[in-house]
Write a structure and sequence with these properties.
This protein has helices at residues 8-39, 46-62, 68-89, 99-121, 147-169, 171-181, 183-188, 193-215, 227-240, 245-265, 273-284, and strands at 137-139, 144-146. It is an all-alpha fold. Strands 1-2 form a two-stranded antiparallel sheet.
């Protein structure tokens, strides 16, 4: 039985590909939403942090001889630590300035990081092997799922849900949100606001690093791997609503599925459909799907 003239296996396969891409969109968008929502910084260095996570995973395997699970822990921590240095050294001095200053500063940081990695590692891609436990496929009857790609979708879902619960349903999350709304009042209760703001950027950077680790066995590890992706991720964040965590997650997966289905019904538009959706959203609801009007 065909659907709109296409076999259902083809459509389900593209939905699966869309969910895989959407997993990276959701993780990266969530990190961007945390940084903008809590710090009011448009972090254009997010793509470079994603690339650093992939390279950190490659280094743990190629240089240290460690396995994928070690890379899955070490790389996000390393990128998060780098994010702490960036926040302390550069970003903390511009929180009171217009958003444009943060965008320009992080854009410059991204160019610097990418240039350094191109100088050190060249433009050629680095291989990163899939873990042995995830080689092969799962035959679900209606669709065949490569094991590692299925793991990426599940890992992304669990991580996004855990971070959302941390920010929205815990005392620490309430402190973070309060510190962005009224830092002077929060500091009166003996809470270290500076530490909270640094933690928010570290968390966003670690999510980008985790995305890079998950992407390393699927895509080639190259210094420019985050350059094109970050444009798409910004479109996802704008569509979901700047600073909205639930908007970043839902829109990330949704955009991935829309992109996948577009490859079935109108392949020529698959590379621009996300930007078309963003443009329509800005016309109909400028604050985004889950955003709040200023």
């Amino acid at each position: 039985m065909e659907i709109f003239g296409f076999p259902p296996q083809l459509i389900l396969g593209q939905v699966l590909i869309g969910l895989i891409n959407g997993s990276f969109y959701a993780l990266l968008s969530l990190g961007l939403a945390i940084i903008f929502g809590l710090l009011r910084v448009i972090n254009f260095a997010h793509g470079a942090l994603y690339m650093m996570g992939a390279f950190a995973a490659w280094m743990t395997q190629a240089w240290l001889g460690l396995n994928f699970w070690a890379a899955l822990v070490i790389a996000p921590l390393a990128v998060g630590l780098f994010g702490l240095v960036v926040e302390r050294a550069f970003l903390r001095s511009i929180y009171h300035l217009d958003h444009l200053y943060g965008l320009l500063l992080t854009f410059g940081i991204a160019l610097l990081i990418e240039g350094m990695y191109r100088y050190w590692f060249g433009a050629a891609g680095k291989p990163f092997t899939t873990p042995d436990v995830f080689r092969g496929i799962w035959d679900l009857g209606f669709v065949i799922v490569p094991k590692y790609r299925g793991f990426v979708v599940l890992a992304s879902l669990v991580t996004c849900l855990a971070v959302w619960l941390l920010i929205e349903r815990t005392r620490l999350g309430s402190y973070l949100r309060a510190a962005t709304e009224n830092p002077d009042l929060v500091s009166c209760f003996g809470i270290n606001v500076s530490l909270l703001t640094a933690s928010a950027y570290v968390l966003g950077a670690a999510l980008a690093g985790l995305s890079g680790v998950l992407a390393a066995p699927i895509y080639q590890v190259t210094p420019l791997m985050g350059t094109n992706l970050i444009i798409v991720v910004f479109a996802v964040v704008v569509t979901g609503g700047m600073g909205s965590l639930s908007g970043a997650i839902i829109t990330g997966y949704g955009m991935g599925v829309i992109e996948g289905l577009t490859k079935v019904f109108y392949p020529a538009a698959s590379s621009v459909v996300i930007f078309v959706v963003m443009a329509l959203m800005l016309l109909l609801r400028p604050a985004g799907l889950f955003g709040k009007e200023a």
